Amino acid sequence: MRKTRGSIKNVLSTGEALPIELKDKFYAETKANLYNLYGPTESTIFTSYEYCKPSATSITIGRPIDDKQVFILNERKQLQPVGIPGELCVAGRVGRGYYQMPELSQKRFFMQSFNGQLYKLYNTGDIARYLHDGRIEYLGRSDFQIKFKGHRVELSEIETCINKYQGIEKCVVDLKKYKGDSLLVAYYTTQDSAEKFDAQRLRDNLVEHLPNYMIPSFFIGLNSIPLTPSGKIDKKALPDLTEKYILHASAYVAPRNNIEFQLVKMLEQLLQVNKISINDDFFQLGGNSLMAVRFILSIKKNFGKTIPFALLFKKGTISEISKYMDIQPRDLISQTLLPIHQANNSKRTLFFAHPVEGLSYLYTPLASHLRKHSLYGLNNPYFYDRNKVFDSIEEMAEHYVKAIKTVQPNGPYYFCGWSSGGQVVYEMALQLKKQGFEVAAVILIDTYHSSIKIEHEDLDIRIPRVLISEGIDPNSEEGKYFKLEYKQNVALLQKYSEKIYDGRVVLIKAQQIASNIEDDLYNGWRSSLSKQIELYSIPGEHGRLLDLEHIENLSIILNGVLEGNPNTNILSDICLSEIDRQLHFAVLNKDPYLIKRCLSLGGNIEIVEHNHNKALL
Q: Is there a contact between 520 and 597 (Cβ–Cβ < 8 Å)?
């Protein structure tokens, strides 16, 4: 970069994404101002801009210019809340379409109404999201995204992480088929200076930067990455997965004794995978949290031994499990705590309480989206030992408080619970506050206060229905365990009555409310709280909020709470009525569902108009 003359005051960067490294180099060599501009040709060149501060650690595409509007929409062309990715659509002085290309024009240009006002929109094909301060973060092209194991995966994000690894010259990631399964495969070339390359070390390094589902199953070294005549990467020319690559990528180690042999056969049957090595990791083989429950119960049935969930999460190989078979876990605390994710230099630790089923395995998918924080689940020891019965939610919470103190002796504590798990963490917070410890936040994922009227069906009908909806056969081994667990915990909840709490409570409300549940904006919790509750909403119904399609929405809110959502002080600092404070909060978070609910309860529409968010209605 040549030094700019003193007469140049402003430099505009456009056409390609502006790397942070280039920004730093720019300010090292000039005193001019740098602006990052975004805008496709179809919206007459420029749509948004951002002044790039010399001290900035990230670069966004800023805010729309005066004659443009930007809408972040989901697949159903509905507005996305703050922080939730969607397709970036532009309104205001956009093109009429593509010349003599009616099908493409119809796909990209369309009319949409927001708050009674009709807009002509252009779908850019870019993925972006609104940040809390109103800026727009560009996330990539929708063309380069794939759906993998229920997640949206940006292949370029994986490639970027691998290309940063020492010794890698170039990497390309693709989705390949092998024996009917879709697998992520990383093809790479190494630098001339690189010594013998260790793919396992690369895999271990990626664990620190990517969620498990984004880590390639296989790493294949090539002499060169195939290119098209125009110089672009030719993915069609990448070699397919064959037995040669599979065996080269993972050395097979056969069972060494009868216990290992039986465990391998049990796991092969469960996962429908042949020739499992004793050093293969349970989760890398395709195992998930529910399969972990089945495997643990299968081991208990065949060997009379109960291995803790923590073992599968930490050392999920047949080799390590067989070593544990001679040790019967008797420590109630170790059985209670499930280390879902342990982050290096963790900012916060979040503890999840199990719902009525008694196990916290259903929270494990959140680890993929909360990588900066350590996560622990709390399991009911009744699952392991039917003699370990609690007489009350208070006694259960007391036991869980002792368990969390073994990994975090002092506050501030962050708690979260879905459904009835919310009552458990609420009681834990009460006990810790009484003991003089700081509780930073209690997060309730659509938990209903005991005062809310819910017309439950008979337990013998309800339990099998719930288990089937979660993919569990009520007549299976794990189904029988869950039935007992469910009935035991329902009995405790029926006796529990919430006391007054004066700490921070966050309620994440399901937007679809079942007809058998009394409708209340705060799910009944205002009667037990001395402070204003923080209310968010996410699409979906109560029983499906932890499904993969909603995990991303949920984790955006959880990350905001853990990292200090800048909007939370609005609930106490503004002199408004309670419903207007909540309305203001909903407007700042661009939550159309809660805005409409607050307005229906008497909220002042001028709050929406003042913040220029009428389009959200």
A: no
Neighbouring C-alpha atoms within 13 Å toward the C-beta of 136: 29
| Single pTM value for the model | 0.67
DSSP secondary structure, 376-416, as one string: EEE--GGGT-TT---SSHHHHHHHHHHHHHTT--SS-EEEE
Q: In percent, how much of the chain has pLDDT > 90?
A: 23
DSSP-assigned beta bridge partners for residue 419: none
pLDDT tens figures, 263-284: 888 888 887 777 787 877 787 6
pLDDT of residue 247: 46
Q: Which residues contact 476 (CB under 8 A, 6 or more apart)?
A: 294
Instruction: Report H helices in 304-444.
Output: 309-314, 318-324, 332-336, 393-405, 421-434
Supply the DSSP string of 14-31, one letter for each residue.
-SS---HHHHHHHHHH--
Instruction: Quote the CA–CA distance of 134 and 63 in Å, as a whole number.
Output: 7
How many angstroms separate the CA atoms of 67 and 20, rounded? Answer: 28
How many C-beta neighbours within 10 Å does residue 38 have?
28
5-32 b/e with 16+ CB inside 10 Å = b? eeeeeeeebeeeebeeeebeebbeebeb
Tell me the backbone φ, ψ of residue 504, rounded to 5 degrees: -80, 125
Which phi and psi (to 5°) does residue 318 adopt?
-60, -35
With beta carbons less than 8 A apart as the criterion, state whether 87 and 72 touch.
Answer: yes
Phi, psi dihedral angles at 33 (to 5 degrees): -90, 140
Q: What are phi and psi of 365, to 5 degrees?
A: -60, -20
Nearest residue to 158 (alpha-carbon basis) of 224, 558, 148: 148
Whether the CB-CB separation of 534 and 504 falls below 8 Å is answered with yes
60: which residues sit within 8 A by CB, 6+ positions away? 36, 50, 131, 135, 136, 137, 138
Q: Tell me the per-residue pLDDT of 56-65, one tens digit each, with 9 for 90 and over.
A: 888 899 999 8
List strands edge to edge, sheet with 168-178.
Answer: 168-178, 181-190, 218-221
- For the record, the structure tokens of 463 come out as 């339990």
Q: For 537-547, how does the pLDDT look when each residue is reduced to its tens digit (9 = 90+)? A: 998 889 888 88
Contacts of 273 (CB under 8 A, 6+ apart): 267, 285, 286
Distance between CA atoms of residues 355 and 470, nearest Å: 13
> What's at 473, amino acid-wise?
D
Half-sphere exposure (Cβ direction) of 414: Cα atoms closer than 13 Å: 16
Residue type, 193: S
What is the β-pairing status of strands 181-190 and 168-178?
antiparallel
- In the chain the first and final C-alpha atoms are separated, in Å, by 48
pLDDT at 204: 72
Beta strands in 193-232 (DSSP E): 218-221
Rounded Cα distance between 44 and 51, Å, is 20
E strand or H helix that includes residue 112: strand 109-114
Report yes or no: 542 and 519 within 8 Å, Cβ to Cβ: no
Q: Which residues make beta-bridge pairs with 118?
A: 113
